[in-house]
Specification:
The structure holds two protein chains of two kinds.
Chain A: E1 13-18, E2 21-26, H1 27-31, E3 35-41, H2 47-59, H3 61-66, E4 71-76, H4 80-90, E5 97-100, H5 105-109, E6 113-116, E7 122-125, E8 128-133, E9 136-142, H6 153-159
Parallel strand pairs in A: 3-4, 4-5
Antiparallel strand pairs in A: 1-2, 3-8, 6-7, 8-9
Chain B: E1 13-18, E2 21-26, H1 27-31, E3 35-41, H2 47-59, H3 61-66, E4 71-76, H4 80-89, E5 97-100, H5 105-109, E6 113-116, E7 122-125, E8 128-133, E9 136-142, H6 152-158
Parallel strand pairs in B: 3-4, 4-5
Antiparallel strand pairs in B: 1-2, 1-5, 3-8, 6-7, 8-9
The chains are: A alpha/beta, B alpha+beta.
Chain lengths: ~160, ~160
């Protein structure tokens, strides 16, 4: 079952890359008491993600924050090293928190998993965006596999 | 069962990044009729791998080829986009073929898996090195905590 509007974000452990290497962080720490724009995608360094999705949130970070978003979070089933390297490569700086769901804990708990084993990717995350207030899902969009229409920063901004 | 010296490399489909995007390649294509230096590691962009293992093979590529190695292969349980990006980041050029075992098919078939799920990395590959001649394993080192066993320098000393 996929997560729905009105649901609480499941409490799971994910990782971020800190100056001292990968650091565990719970979703509670990320979401409690904040308005968060969260988007997920099938993989770091992939074409649609790199070319459009992540940059759309970097480009619109200020506009989202002006509309009340405290934190922008990018999540993917990649490890903390890969997410850190991808963030650096794309120049995310402080605009977007790069969160590694390397063991797919969040992705599976939220029912957003997509099995891409046949294509050599293992289990990954569907392309989605959510607006989350104090841990409760307020808006949820999921793109069909291979498409990128509903989950952009631009689409989220329109709804805010 | 972990693969051993004398075993044949199993036939598995893998991926490499090409000019036109991700491309499939089988282990048969990589290994048949060639002498291949292959090394595997737990993950692209990780500190030991980035700082030592891959660069060691890049730097010693000419020396390895002078000793009869036709192809140098780096393999990890990362997808083809990550392996391509890492190769670019590390300026691998044509020296090392960056092979993605994204679904861990090769890693599992050779018994070289390493479960790093607790640490948020999922199922990965142990750090290893092999010399493979026409698909047959001639030497095999698996890292048991000593990185140097699987380095390009160690392999060179044994060739």
């Amino acid at each position: 079952m996929s997560i729905s509007v009105g649901d609480k974000i499941p409490s799971v452990q994910v990782h971020v890359l800190s100056g001292d290497g990968p650091k565990g962080i719970s979703t509670d720490e990320i979401f409690a008491g904040k308005t968060v724009a969260l988007f997920g995608l099938p993989g770091a360094f992939t074409r649609t993600c790199s070319a459009k999705h992540l940059p759309s949130f970097i480009d619109h970070a200020d506009a989202l924050k002006a509309k009340g978003v405290d934190q922008i979070v990018c999540i993917s089933v990649n490890d903390a090293f890969v997410m850190g390297a991808w963030g650096k490569d794309r120049g995310t700086g402080d605009a977007v928190m790069m969160v590694a769901d390397g063991s797919a804990n969040f992705t599976k708990a939220a029912g957003l998993d997509i099995d891409m084993s046949e294509k050599g990717y293992g289990v990954r995350c569907r392309r989605f965006s959510m607006l989350i207030e104090d841990g409760v899902v307020k808006v949820l969009n999921i793109d069909a596999p291979g498409t990128y229409e509903l989950t952009s920063a631009e689409a989220m901004l329109v709804g805010l | 069962m972990t693969i051993s010296v004398g075993d044949k490399i199993p036939t598995i489909d893998l991926s490499i990044m090409t000019q036109d995007g991700p491309g499939g390649i089988s282990t048969d294509e990589i290994f048949a009729g060639k002498k291949v230096a292959i090394f595997g590691l737990p993950g692209a962009f990780t500190p030991t791998c980035s700082a030592k293992h891959l660069p060691g093979f890049v730097q010693n590529a000419d020396a390895l080829k002078a000793k009869g190695i036709d192809t140098i292969v780096c393999l990890a349980v990362n997808d083809v986009f990550v392996m391509g990006a890492w190769g670019k980041d590390q300026n691998v050029g044509d020296t090392v073929m960056m092979v993605a075992d994204g679904s861990a098919n090769f890693t599992k078939a050779t018994g070289l898996e390493l479960d790093l799920t607790e640490r948020g990395l999922g199922l990965r590959c142990q750090r290893f090195s092999m010399v493979v001649d026409d698909g047959e394993v001639k030497s095999l080192h698996i890292d048991d905590g000593v990185f140097e066993m699987t380095s390009a320098e160690t392999m060179l000393g044994e060739l």
